Every structure is written in C-alpha cells, then in structure tokens.
C-alpha cells in the first residue's frame, strides 16, 4: 500500500456542497450586520431546541460557559456536591468548581466508558445537588437510572452532551433528559461551528428565563438588570454557520456511524483490542472512535511512523490531574478511569474520510498486531 498521511481529524466538504452553503450563510450574516444576538441566533436557538426535542435552547459562547450557566440556572452553588465522571474532558469538572460547588468523582462503566446511575448512587451524600452524566465519545448514557435517582434524592440532572449531539436514548435525543443540559459547538464536535460556541437546553421555563438573562449580563431588557450575569453569547456568524450544519447533522452522524461500522467489522478479534461497546437502548454518534489495548503507546508510535495520527481521550483522569490534587485522591482511587486512561486510543474518524485513508489505518493496525500480537 502506498504511504499516505492520515490526519486524526480533517474538515472535509461532507456532504458535498456543505462548505459552500456555510460560506454563503456566513457572508449573508456578515452583510446583515446584526453581529450580536442577531436574528440568526434566535432562529438557530429554535431550530436546535426542536432538534433536541426540548422547549428552549440558549446560545452561549462555548461549551464550558454552557455548563457554568446551566449549573447556575439550576441553583447549584457554594458547598453543593455535584457528581461527575472521573473520565471526562476537564471542562465538566472545572464548571462545577467555577460555580463554587464541589466535584465528586465517580467511576465510569468499563464497557461503555460512561457514568452509570449505579456508580453515581454510591457517591450520593446529603449535600449532593446534581449529577452530570457526560455522553462520552458520542454514546448516550443510560438515562432511566439517573432520572430515578433524581426523583428519589431530589437531585438535578445536568447533561453534558458536548460530544453527542444527535445521539439517542430509547429513541429520544440526548440533551432532552436533564432538567437542563449543556453542549459545545467547538469546531471538531459533531455539530461544530467555525469557532467557539455552545448552548444551554431546557424545557423548564424558569431555568430558561434565568439562562436568557444570566448569559447576557443579567439583563431582562437592555440596561435593566435583574441579576448579576456574565457575557457569554453565541456569535451571530457562528449561528449562521450552525444553522446549515444542523440541517446536515443526521447525515454527518450517519457517516460517522458508517465509518465506525467499518472499523468495528475489520478490527474484531485482533490482538487484545477492546472495541467500543454500545449499550442497549443507546445510540452512538462516534464523536470519538475509542479502542483499547495494553500496547497503546507502542501502537500509537507505530501508527504515527506510518503517517497515521491518533489521539488519546484522555491521558490523565481527573483525579490524577495536578489541578485536582486538592480533591485528595491518589493512584488507585478510580481503577477503571485509570485503566481507560492507560489503554485508550482514538482512531481517525471524520465525515468525508476516504476509503483509502481508512484502509491505511486498518492495514497498519493489522501489521502492528501481527508483529506484536
Ligand atoms: C468539548 C467539551 C466541552 C467544552 O466545550 P468548549 O466549547 O471547548 O468549552 C465540555 N464537555 C465535554 C465532554 C466536551 O467534550
């Protein structure tokens, strides 16, 4: 096979013509001159809320702000405990600290890599106020158990669906289960903008009203401030681009799922590889195609020598991050999260990835395990 470079991620014109549509939409928005909270933003908010099957979506500056605003709106603050998975992108945990609450880490499930209600339940104390299920890698969490816990213990479920726009649990889109939910439109996310962006989603009118004010200085109307808010708004140009991308989100996710199926079929039974496992009732939109092997570092190095870029999500679990030593955990505190950190490797997967590229990845993995199996 000829030597080809395969990036970990690449922006491609998929479905063909989308780039042109996005450029035209952005140009229209530039010429429309409604740069802050223009009509594109409110229309996108309605369209995105409809997609997620929630009443209201509020655009914000990025996914981190979406989490902070969602927690604020839910009344989470000083001294409250919030249960989060020990294997997530750091934003989930930082947002909890930002509102003055205490992040309480919990083990992920070793098969799905997602937080489960059973693990979260073990961490509930009288101070627990919320749980943040993160739909990690693009797979929906099993939500029924979380909703039951919320009812039993009077907790708020705040979904982090930054990696999983379009994923479903029992047929319903993620983002619609929590009392309030947060997502990111970081460019490489399944629904990505051309820069930073995020959204808060809720069907609770009181939380929606708070969010609408809080993210825009706490204004009820211009220069009339009901509360002390922040400035975190979805940019009008980003909203214009996102409206086009949203129309194609299912096609983009279908293509990710098709590519994932090719990987799943071709990597079955190779070496000690553990392939992504999707739980019953859950769908997976493969924001990340995560494989696991004890030879992770050697495999990553070999692939890189073959021109194939990979990534690790995430190399250090939250409790072993320098920033979180104050939580008082140590190596061994969360064995599953640690094992995932040591063995996980994310393979290239992006809409528009060519058959040649994917075959190159597969051939290199096969060769590696023939030599090291
Ligand atoms: C990307 C991401 C975020 C944060 O999004 P930003 O827009 O980069 O701030 C939060 N949580 C998870 C799980 C993410 O993957």
TrEMBL record:
Catalytic center residues: 189 (proton acceptor)
Family to which the UniProt record says this protein belongs: Belongs to the DegT/DnrJ/EryC1 family.
Alphabetized GO MF terms: pyridoxal phosphate binding; transaminase activity
Record's keyword terms, sorted: Pyridoxal phosphate
The keyword Glycoprotein appears for this protein: no
Superkingdom of origin: Bacteria
Pfam families (UniProt xref): DegT_DnrJ_EryC1 (PF01041)
UniProt modified residues of type N6-(pyridoxal phosphate)lysine: 189
UniProt GO BP: polysaccharide biosynthetic process
Name assigned to this protein: dTDP-4-amino-4,6-dideoxygalactose transaminase
